[in-house]
Amino acid sequence: MTLPIHQARAAIVDALAKHASVIIEAPTGSGKSTCVPSFLLDGGLAGHGIIRILQPRRLAARMLARRVAALRGGVLGDEVGYQVRFDNRTSARTRICFETDGISLRRITQSDPALRDTAILVFDEFHERHLFGDLMLGLATQLQSGLRPDLKLVVMSATLNTRELEAYLPGAKVIRAEGRTYPVEIQHIPPNAAFEKAPLWEQAAKMLPTALRHAPDGDVLIFMPGAYEINRTLQTLAHTPAASGRLLLPLHGSLPPAQQDQAAGTGAGSRRIIVSTNIAETSLTIEGVTAIIDSGLVRQAGYDPHRGINTLLTGKISQASAAQRTGRAGRTAPGIAIRLWTERDHQKRALHETPELLRIDLCETALQLKLAGIDDIAGFPWITPPQPQHIENAMVTLTLLGAIDRHGSITPQGRRMAAFPLHPRIARMLIAGDGKDCIPTLCLIAALLQEQSILLNSVDERIRERRRQLAGPEAASDLTLLINAWHFVRERQYTREAGDEIGVQLQAARTVEALQRQLLQIAESQGLYGYEKQPDMDCVYKAVLTAFPDRLAVRIAGDRCSLSGGRRGSTHPSSIVSRQHTLLVAADVQETTVGKNAVDVILSLITAVREEWIDDGFGASLHMRREVGLDTVQAGRVVAEEQTCFGDLVIRSRRRTEVTPDEAAYVLAREVVAGRLSIKAWDASVEEWIARINLVATHCPETGISAIGDEERAAMMEQMIHGAMGSKDVKHANVQPVLSQWLSPLQTATVETMAPNRIRIENGRTPRIQYNDPSGPFIAMRVQELYDTNTLPKLCNGAVRLKAQILAPNQRPVQITDDLKRFWSESYLQIRKDLRGRYPKHEWR
DNA sequence: CTCTCCCT
């Protein structure tokens, strides 16, 4: 059979012979992943070197290698091989190697920085923009312009952001090829407020009959953002007539493999409705789907570089992602895709998904680049550069972990950490266990933290009870449950019964064993020692704290905790750590959507911490603080606390009752300024006097009088209330003595002159001046009282114009002006006309 | 309303 890509064969070989890089844009089904490597090898482009095809997924690397080996009539591992984690099927004869991008990245940073044995790097599925692929492409372009001008690059993609990539690879030849799929009709919902307000699962159920009318003979695939929405959809469909007679199946990552296979395989006769997360968008292909109902939403892990916090939020998918989901309905026959968002919404959506490197914590990336000799992280040839703040956060964390020094260079400890295929925090934890007789347990914890959770999350009460028994009473760490659960199933040879008894995902538990073994080997090669029979769990937990010192938390009440940075959060409901522990460290802190529009910070994988551990490891970061404030319980008394702080987080406070009169005055005065307490004698006339002082201070700086703000008010009040020890002593404080002595006699006289209480105007009257108005000082007078006055005096040695608020006979203001002459000649005429009729007995000139 | 998905 000939695939569409064959028509491009000559063009591809020719292009790569002449250019250092080639971009191949071809949709799914074009056969590019299986064919292009052979074109290149048979075209003689690889010389004696290896063609490495980078894949984002292990499964794809294995399957493609099998298929290509078979197509070329060879044995897997001979000419054609693959390498993924824990599984290497290559030999000295291998010329075409399918490998995961993580394997390639480790090779280039750890063992072979010049990729000496490699002739061509082929990046498959590049449009998915995974972190490792992006990094590899950057490093490969650096090699091309340095050690390896002969290295050739092929970047393949279904829907490419081609312009961005062409700009990134100047001189690259672009080749486009056709795909081969069946047409899929796309229907957006029309704008309809009532429909859009209904829950997602009801929307999906309502559109089911339309989907089935267009594609009655295939399976239906419904995309939902997460497990919760999937379960609600299944419940709704169970009562939907159109769905009757069809098999209803959930599909998401935390289902046991057997259930995933049931959804991913062919239906074997009965027609199905599969409700899935994003797992069905690229990772799993479901045969026989002809109708898609797409919620258009995705739950996505992220990282907020400004707050430095991990997130897991529900968001809208991009146009490219929607197209990919749509394509899932056209693999075997023409199909239909119903999108639960409007055409207008669609046009406003992002063209592509955000590249992973902009969405995740960059600690591990930065450390790997430092190891590769790239000290200036911002200067790396990023395809899409991360924000400076984002890089800065990684530097702060790496410094905290001792992986880089204050010049930003990698330390010997940093090199040791980078040898582990782990987040630098977790690598730091292993190193903290050096010589402490707990390395195997720490390697196990590292594997458990790094991989998907081995514990199933929706389990019944019986299993929860078994888990509580397994963790023991008054558990001090959620990690203990993970460790014990893992040992439980491993000692029983990962039998189904053992897994069911405590709700463990056996596949994940097996992966943990393989990873632990790999980590132990690396630990040995890095010279870590300490191989226990019975681990000292205190040492283990201290090592955990070393990895996450900035994720220390203090329980306030129940599930609520305070974290550093003034944040609040809740412990995860699955936590088994006893409530009596108040000082905690969380290995995972994530901001998560809760409810329709709210978010909360969730702390999981919690370990109770003893204060002396902080002293041991981070004594330098601890400091004492004396905090004085109003007692919340015994209301009104000023009390003091002695606080032990770690950064800005108060980890312990001791109540102290002795408060000095100075401290009490300080606290109470600020309560008054904030408006929560009042001094009876501090009335409007006091504020008026302050306004006069401030006017002079602003406009006559030569007098040396300074303005009175909140701090100065508080300072005055401290003197007035000195000796008061509680809020009830404040009210009758004596104001005048302090107020009158605030300024020297000369300054007081200056204020009286520059900003007098009363002032004589042209017609001989002496009105009072009102100072306490944001627009400036003014006199308020009835029209008649202003007759024979054309100019107003000035204040502050002529620097401030006095205003007149002109009142009607009933004292209502009609105008405010600082130009009386103009008033008489202009607006007065109209005002007189209006008022004369109403007040005929008054004098009107 | 307990947890999207990959990878060294």
Indicate the CATH topology of the largest domain.
Rossmann fold
Can you tell me the CATH superfamily of the largest domain? P-loop containing nucleotide triphosphate hydrolases
Provide the CATH top-level class of the largest domain. Answer: Alpha Beta
Which percent band covers the strand fraction? Answer: 15-25%
The CATH architecture of the largest domain can be named as: 3-Layer(aba) Sandwich
Number of helices: 30
Task: Estimate the global geometry from the Cα principal axes.
Answer: globular
Rounded radius of gyration (Å): 37 Å
- Mean pLDDT, rounded to whole units? 90
Number of domains: 7
- Please report the distance between the alpha carbons of the first and last residues: 108 Å
Major sheet size, sense and barrel closure:
8 strands, mixed
Helix-strand category: alpha/beta
Poorly predicted spans: none
**Which sequence of strands runs across the widest sheet?**
4-3-5-2-6-7-1-8
| Helix content bin | 25-40%
Question: What would you note in describing this structure?
Answer:
- The structure is a single chain.
- This protein is 38% helix and 20% strand.
- The strands form 6 sheets. It has an 8-stranded mixed β-sheet, with helices on both faces.
- It is α/β, with parallel strands linked by helices.
- The model has no long low-confidence stretch (mean pLDDT 90).
- A hairpin with a 4-residue loop joins β26 (794-795) and β27 (800-801).
- It binds one DNA strand of 8 nucleotides through residues 56-58, 84-85, 100-106, 110, 128, 130-132, 225-229, 232, 252-254, 277-279, 281-283, 298-301, 312-314, 356, 364, 368, 420-422, 450, 452-453, 457-458, 518, 572-574, 590, 592-595, 602, 604.
